[in-house]
Amino acid sequence: MVKNICIVTGAAGFIGSHMVDFLLKKNFFVYGIDNFSNGEKKNLKNAIKNKNFKLINKDFSKVKISEISKKASFVFHFAGIGSIVPSIEDPFKYFENNAIKTIKFIEFIRKNKLKLKKFVYAASSSCYGLYSLKTDENVKISCQHPYAYSKYVGEQSSMFWGKIYNIPIISIRIFNAYGLRFKTTGAYGSVIGVFLRQKLSNYPLTICGNGKQKRDYVHISDVVNAFYLAAMSNQKSQIYNLGYGKPNTVKKLANIISNKFQKIPNRKGEPFATHADISKIKRHLKWKPVVSFNEGMSEIMKNIGLWKTAPLWTTSSIKKYTRTWTKLIK
Ligand SMILES: NC(=O)c1ccc[n+]([C@@H]2O[C@H](COP(=O)([O-])OP(=O)(O)OC[C@H]3O[C@@H](n4cnc5c(N)ncnc54)[C@H](O)[C@@H]3O)[C@@H](O)[C@H]2O)c1
Fold first, then answer.
1. What average pLDDT score do residues 138-142 get?
2. Could you tell me the distance, in angstroms and rounded to a whole number, from the CA of residue 82 to the centre of ligand 1?
């Protein structure tokens, strides 16, 4: 039987590598592209043993048609760089990598006449800025930093190319993905990673403000399932929010990880809460999250040793990061 052929960009990253594993289990042939700017070989340790996987170690905007198959039917586009402070310091680098290279890549698909059944773009909920109420896809866009803007332009350009050149595109605005292999630094380093690493060093968890801030964490297995269902669906030119649909407080998270805390000042420039309205994705793709926050965190706690070599955020490094951010964003 002819296999479904697909391309996963950012294949060695957190989400991309889980997507690769998921697709290989479904018996897809997968071309995984990564330039290892933030990816890790160990994330692909199972994939590289699989005869249905081919790793292309280069910039996704420089891939040649001879390196992939013209018969590819699906693209999952996860390649991107994501750190807020560096994006404020070097905005063009972010815009180039996340927006311009995405356009180049869609142009590559168009010019080579790939007959895609779906191009699924990994967008970011950061486009909603400081909005802290339940967020549907029509909430006003309000990018607060170049990272958010670069991802948003990448999304909108993909949607535009899709409409004009009849490429079926779906964009999924991910809220806070978490699970094994996730990073402790970067835009998605997120408080979970910071706390895990602090716990491993017997360092008190640094809680900003009163710890009542909320984040809508969605487990990685639910994330890759959503991307898969988007690819398989008949939908096109659609944008979906992807979260669990029920945020959890930082205090609750901290209590799961440790009983040693210290309070540090609250940070400006971040939403007080993120809360995805997931009714559209549930309705259109028949997707729903299945891994609860308690289940997902219990998996993480059982594997906490995996983060022992990750960078440690100390009180002073967090304060420095916050100061740079606040100064730059003004
Ligand atoms: N993790 C989240 O919660 C979250 C939330 C919203 C959006 N996203 C988006 O999802 C995507 C994946 O996120 P992640 O958490 O897995 O990040 P990640 O950093 O773990 O993975 C991104 C991968 O892309 C690769 N990459 C970057 N630029 C590249 C280039 N020019 N060519 C080839 N490879 C390149 C990196 O080496 C890395 O392996 C990103 O685009 C991100 O913006 C993630």
1. 98
2. 7
* Domain annotation covers residue 282: no
Give me the catalytic one of 31, 121, 128, 147. Answer: 147
Site to substitute for ligand 1 among 8, 38, 173, most atoms within 8 A of C-beta: 38
Q: Is 121 a catalytic residue?
A: no
For ligand 1, what atom is nearest to the CA of residue 190?
A: 3
| pLDDT of residue 27 exceeding 70 | yes
Residues 118 and 252 occupy one common structural domain: no
Question: For ligand 1, what atom is nearest to the CA of residue 37?
Answer: 37
Q: Quick one: three-class SS letters along the chain?
A: CCCCEEEEECCCCHHHHHHHHHHHHCCCEEEEECCCCCCCHHHHCCHHHCCCEEEECCCHHHCCHHHCCCCCCEEEECCCCCCHHHHHHCHHHHHHHHHHHHHHHHHHHHHCCCCCCEEEEEEEHHHHCCCCCCECCCCCCCCCCHHHHHHHHHHHHHHHHHHHHCCCEEEEEECEEECCCCCCCCCCCHHHHHHHHHHHCCCCEEEECCCCCEECEEEHHHHHHHHHHHHHCCCCCEEEEECCCCCEEHHHHHHHHCCCEEEECCCCCCCCECCECCHHHHHHHCCCCCCCHHHHHHHHHHCHHHHCCCCCCCHHHHHHHHHHHHHHHC
Is the CB of residue 189 below 6 angstroms from any atom belonging to ligand 1? no
Q: For residue range 33-92, list pLDDT tens digits in order.
A: 999 999 999 999 999 999 999 999 999 999 999 999 999 999 999 999 988 888 988 999
Q: Which residue range forms the structural domain that includes residue 310?
A: 182-216+246-273+294-329
Q: Could you tell me if 221 and 203 lie in one domain?
A: no
pLDDT per position as a tens digit, 169-193? 999 999 999 999 988 766 555 789 8
Cα of 330 vs centre of ligand 1, distance in Å, is 27
